[in-house]
Amino acid sequence: MSYELVKKVKELEPYEPISGTYKIRLDANESFFDLPDNIRSEIKDIIDSVDFNRYPDPAAKELIISFSDYYGIDPEHITATNGSDEVLYLIASALLERGSRVVVTDPDFSMYAFYSFLSENEILTFQKNDQLNINVDDLISFIKENKADMVIFSNPCNPTGCGIKAEDARKLVTEAGDCLVILDEAYMDFWDQSILKEAQDHDNLIVLKTASKAVGSASIRLGFAVANKTITRALRSVKSPYNVNTISQKIGTVIFKHKDMLKGRTEKIRIQTKELYSGLKKLIDSYQLPFVIYEPCANFVFVETEKAKDIYEFLLENSIAVRLFGKYSALRITAGSEQENTELLVNFEKYIIQNILKRNR
Questions:
Q1: Other C-beta atoms within 10 Å of 129: how many?
Q2: 228, 196 in Cβ contact below 8 A?
Q3: Side-chain half-sphere exposure of 307, counting CA atoms within 13 A
Q4: Do 321 and 24 touch, CB atoms closer than 8 A?
Q5: How far apart are CA 337 and CA 188, in angstroms?
Q6: DSSP string over 136-167
Q7: Which candidate among 17, 69, 138, 295 keeps its CA 20 to 30 Å from the CA of 132?
């Protein structure tokens, strides 16, 4: 008798992002800024000092200090991870017992439910309201009625770009009882409603951060979890000993020290996001299209339309990649540079003229 895969992974398919080469990539919520030459030079110098035959620092001390200084948090409350995906899996598998009840919201980042599924937790889905946002009172009631062990969601939300304010996040944490609250603030650099600095004061809260969005360092896969000392000790205990490689630690340490550069770029991304939103809304309104567009708190714009798949394919044909969410008949469009946004808007309007207006005549 030969080995057979267990049922939970038997029919899974590997994640396959958009393949091919495109002139403009607005599909992955990456920063449109690459690192400047002066920081690249610093990185080259520090990499020359790396002992490649030695394991990384298991505690990632220098990286955590650099991150903590940038966000103004006590280093003792921070765990560094190999991207946010690692800590998401650790939370689902190690901080919960098998069969624990996990509340996810819909729409939201699909990997929350995926890692809970792999950890054999029971997944409960809380549907957002018609504005694709969370009514916190309803969510609290849902948690209590279902005796949930954990709730997890992104704030601002990926893929909608909507978010709940800090006062509502605090209310959720304080009224959720013994339910563990995971707030993924991957996109909070673009908004001002963070409760990151408050995570250390609660016994049921973990706030997640990443270097892949506003920090513009998706290639080095850095994630961070901020929590009280008890949870932090547990996360540091269950992670693998050398989970963040030396190169990523060194590069991250350098980047987070450039506060003015990072904050300046974040503000420029905010401006381009507003320009993208305004441009798309103007097209939708001027052509009186039955599209729904959501004003974003993040670095991307979410557009619901029955034409989502057609627009997505049209843009690809014109060498512009955006993200298609077929389940919601929607497009998620990352803010690009001024030039990239302009080209996106030109082609978006071209689709409208060629494929909607002509057919309606």
A1: 10
A2: no
A3: 15
A4: yes
A5: 20
A6: HHHHHHHHHHTT-SEEEEESS-TTT-----HH
A7: 17
Over residues 33-74, the pLDDT tens digits come to 999 999 999 999 999 999 999 999 999 999 999 999 999 999
Residue 55 near residue 180, CB atoms below 8 Å:
no
Both tokens of 193, joined, read 């409603």
- Count how many residues are written for the chain: 361
Residue 56, amino acid = P
Give the residue among 162, 205, 158, 166 at the shortest CA–CA distance from 186: 158
Q: Report CA-CA distances (Å) from 115 to 127, 166, 181, 186, 361.
A: 19, 26, 16, 17, 49
Q: Which tokens sit at 320? A: 């512009």
Nearest of 332, 335, 194 to residue 270 by alpha carbon: 335
Residue 223 CA to residue 11 CA, distance in Å, equals 29
How distant is the alpha carbon of residue 124 from its chain centre? 21
Whether omega for the bond prior to residue 36 falls within 30 degrees of 0, making it cis, is: no
Question: For residue 297, what are its two tokens?
Answer: 């708190």
How far apart are the C-alpha atoms of 281 and 332, rounded to whole Å?
Answer: 14
Tell me the pLDDT tens digit for each residue of 251-305: 999 999 999 999 999 999 999 999 999 999 999 999 999 999 999 999 999 999 9
For residues 354 and 287, what is the distance between their CA atoms, to the nearest angstrom? Answer: 13
